[in-house]
Design goal:
- This protein has 9 helices and 16 strands.
- The protein is of the alpha+beta class.
- The strands form 3 sheets. Strands 7, 8, 9, 10, 13 and 14 form a 6-stranded mixed sheet that branches. A 5-stranded antiparallel sheet has the order 2-1-5-4-3.
- Helix 1 (3-41) packs parallel to helix 4 (147-194).
- The protein is elongated.
Amino acid sequence: MSTQEFSEFDFFKKRLGQTERLLAVKQQQIDSLLEITRAVNNNMPITALARIYENILHAQLGVTKIALFINEADDSWICITPGENIESILNYPVHKRFSQFHSIMPVVALKDEALAGFEYLIPVTHKKEPIGYVLIGPFGADQSDTKEEKLKFIQTITNIIVVANENKKLFKSQLDQLVMQKELKLAADMQNMLVPSTLPNNEKIEAAAYYKPHKNIGGDYYDFVNISEHEVAFCISDISGKGIPAALLMANFQANLRTLITRKYPLPQFIDILNTKVLEITKGEKFITLFIATYNYQTRILTYVNAGHNPCILFSKGQIELLDLGCTILGMFETLPYVNFGEVKIEPDAMIVLYTDGLSEAANNEGKLFEVEGLVDYIQGHNELALPEFNSKLLDRVIAYKQDTDFDDDITLLTLRIK
């Protein structure tokens, strides 16, 4: 073999060796990507993914210093690779300092002594929004791949890790929403079970109701209870708050109210006991307005207490009477400062309208409320209607009054005609 032939052979042998080493590196990188992908598909926790990530960068690329920051669900940023010599930047304000960068940056260009020992910043973005940052230190001495190729590889696996974390957050958020929707449906179903499924319509009394929570689960409640053959009770209330807490409080409140009302306490004593029960449940953090009345078919006497609720309206023989005697709202004081009650003789064909403030405080475009006067005006002109139609047309009037503004509270209406 001539000197020239030997030189060419040596050159090709050297190139072959370089190619084999490069192929080995690329195969190693492919294997690493497969390992990371399998770990993601197996839903391994982010801490386990971070350990695999660190091992790949240390073992294959010889990176001596790694700090990978991800965005948590509460928009805080945490380092998930708390290795050696990075304690000083664990609380570094990465998002504040790095959010302007969208491509690989030499750390030296950032001119920040706190980042000493790191060589490159690699941001990870989604739809131009940063979702992760990694700071890496020097590479090892291995020259089988260029620095640019190594950075591209790090960028690729960093994207896999950070996007996997974002997907976990998204999945958790969707799961939380699904659980919340199921809880809300359960609470709404529970509320529907608390109000009467049927109301009386007989030779003694007729009743009709309308209930519409503002957002699926409201804080309004109404009820109609047969106490005995000759006596009934009916009520309407507004519980502070909305959603599941209001639904749970409503369930407790209804159980106590129904238990106590059948024991036939005088109404002032009944209200005192019910107030104590509310305080035991709410610890003074929630309040309840209540209008409750009992009616005796034989004596035709209506006895009522209004505990801070809107004045219910009695329409009899063309006259309006506001039923507003009572006490303060329930759940505010351990002992109610006073409890008054009203007694009214009910004439035949009298109408009683109970409602919550979602109806009377409906506002138009100018901010003017519908108020009790709007209800009184409607009652005086429509009291001959059958109660379901009376309620329906009243709601139509309130909707027309509001013009194009939305309702911002629950609406409950309980109407009775005593024959």
